[in-house]
Amino acid sequence: RGARVTLVAANTALAAPAGVDVVPVSSTAELREALLAAVADADAVVMAAAVADFRPATYAPGKIKKKDDAEPEPLALVRNPDILAELSADRARAGQLVVGFAAETDDVLAHGRAKLARKGCDLLVVNEVGETKTFGAESSEAVVLGADGSETPVPYGPKEGLAHTVWDLVAARLA
Q1: Is 21 helix (H, G, I), strand (E, B) or coil?
Q2: Which H or E run contains 38?
């Protein structure tokens, strides 16, 4: 669509898309720093992948081995930063559009609306996940919720159709 694109990506084996600046990261902290740098002159920020809500409080320098019949120590978790909420609250520039994604397992629209309000983004792409609706599938269905109260359903089909709908909504809001 003619945009200059920066892709901040973690843990992917996919080839870099043609014409896209790729910034590889390996942790949530690196992702946050790379995004804060990349959004400075962006018209739109699309957070198409979720960051884990929590991470281990400490990392083992090597394999944690079994010791006799003893159970391992419980893992302590700490909260990761909420990058989507941070980018929404502290827009790098006036008029910047922020799009988030939410995978939900039940009461999808109600949880999506609550998340949209909580995160403060302009659009939230909400889809149901579960046993037969998985990440990485070739097809999906979703509803794109707008902060303006709009709801745009995207029927089940190839993910390219969902992407076109999202970009159409972004372009319309930037026009």
Answers
A1: strand
A2: helix 28-38
Q: How far is CA 14 from the centre of its chain?
A: 17
The alpha carbon torsion through 34, 50, 167, 39 (nearest 10 deg) reads: -20
Asked if 165 contacts 146 with a C-beta cutoff of 8 angstroms, the reply is no
Domain parsing of the chain, residue ranges: 43-59+67-174
pLDDT digits (tens, 9 = 90+) for 111-160: 999 999 999 999 999 998 876 666 667 788 899 999 999 999 999 999 89
**Distance separating alpha carbons of residues 124 and 58, to the nearest angstrom:** 32
Q: What is the rounded CA–CA span in Å between residue 84 and residue 54? A: 15
Q: What is the largest CA-CA distance in the chain?
A: 65
Q: What distance in Å separates the CA atoms of residue 32 and residue 160, rounded to the nearest whole number?
A: 27
The dihedral through the CA atoms of 42, 47, 52, 53 has a sign that is positive
By the 8 A CB rule, do 60 and 73 touch? no
Looking at domain 43-59+67-174, its CATH class is alpha beta
pLDDT 10s digits, 12-61: 778 888 899 999 998 888 999 999 999 999 999 999 877 788 989 998 89
* Distance between CA atoms of residues 10 and 29, nearest Å: 11
Instruction: List beta partners, residue 25.
Output: 10
